């Protein structure tokens, strides 16, 4: 470890301010060198406060994502064991696709502090404010057949909801197929892209956007009314590295189970997380508008809508309460 990394590590583990003198003695370097390293950390985006007569305090919550901050929390076998952390990119989905041209790893994580062209489904845009959220793509290679892939989005949504509940105790709802909601507002979204031949899956790129430490004004004007973040509903800000490691774990556990047992063991839990079940809905698909009551979900992850013409399974689309 370099002296700069040692300073960071000491501040990260400290429960009280650490003085320049303490750091200088501990690392056997001059006070001037300590000061220079602190300046350099500030330049890198670390939020370090110098409290008069007491010392330095690192604000972990504003800490940029890094392998150093993530690894101590990571409990997975393969997920996030290879990773790329970017300061900025167009879209982590795009970076993942480029990476896949010459690489292969089940559980590769690409995460960026900012996306300039973040994407939702149907090429909609995804607002990805710098440093506030988790904008990430997971490259996974589950041992399933291409036609078995659709419920992956629902399994991922459950895993993320579970991870959030573990770290924050917030209650997260899932809106079919890919929205995570808190109090009816969107806190996250999932974009699942499949690379496969008719016979086998080459990779699934699971794009996840999660609003973590935003205040309401951090969102673009156009989504102010529909978007929310975890921090808006939580008393204290959330340490993104810890949350990311928990998401990695819950995703890995869920996808492994899905590979072996399919969607059946997730179905009940998914329904419990989805307040829309039992409600009158309007579903907009690429081809038509369907009205009816959302009555459940089948083993392929299709939403079942009871209409005057009978129960219709919905494989894609946008659903709103009517
Ligand atoms: C989604 O699409 O919800 C999928 C979003 C996936 C984003 C991730 S971020 C990492 C990875 N890289 C990418 O480029 N994408 C993935 P959809 O259901 O189509 O919802 C899109 C709609 O959500 C937009 O039209 C807005 O109305 C709204 N929206 C955009 N940004 C938002 C945000 N930050 N929070 C809440 N809602 C947002």
TrEMBL record:
Q: Which InterPro entries match?
A: aa-tRNA-synth_II/BPL/LPL, Bifunct_BirA, Biotin_CoA_COase_ligase, BPL_C, BPL_LPL_catalytic, HTH_11, Transcriptional_repressor_C, WH-like_DNA-bd_sf
Keyword vocabulary terms for this entry: ATP-binding, Biotin, DNA-binding, Ligase, Nucleotide-binding, Repressor, Transcription, Transcription regulation
Protein EC: 6.3.4.15
Q: Which reaction does it catalyse?
A: biotin + L-lysyl-[protein] + ATP = N(6)-biotinyl-L-lysyl-[protein] + AMP + diphosphate + H(+)
GO molecular function ontology, one term from the record: biotin--[biotin carboxyl-carrier protein] ligase activity
Give the residue spans that cross the bilayer: none
PROSITE patterns reported in the protein's UniProt record: BPL_LPL_CATALYTIC (PS51733)
A Pfam cross-reference name: BPL_LplA_LipB
In this chain, biotin is annotated as bound at 115, 186
Which positions make up the DNA-binding region? 20-39
**Ranges where the BPL/LPL catalytic domain occurs:** 77-255
Any signal peptide, and if so, which residues?
none
Instruction: Please indicate which superkingdom the organism of origin belongs to.
Output: Bacteria
Enzyme class comes to ligase
* PANTHER family given in the database record: BIOTIN PROTEIN LIGASE (PTHR12835), BIOTIN--PROTEIN LIGASE (PTHR12835:SF5)
Q: Which family does it belong to?
A: Belongs to the biotin--protein ligase family.
Q: What job does this protein perform?
A: Acts both as a biotin--[acetyl-CoA-carboxylase] ligase and a repressor.
Protein name as catalogued: Bifunctional ligase/repressor BirA
User: Top-down, what is the taxonomic lineage of the species of origin?
Assistant: Bacteria, Bacillati, Bacillota, Bacilli, Bacillales
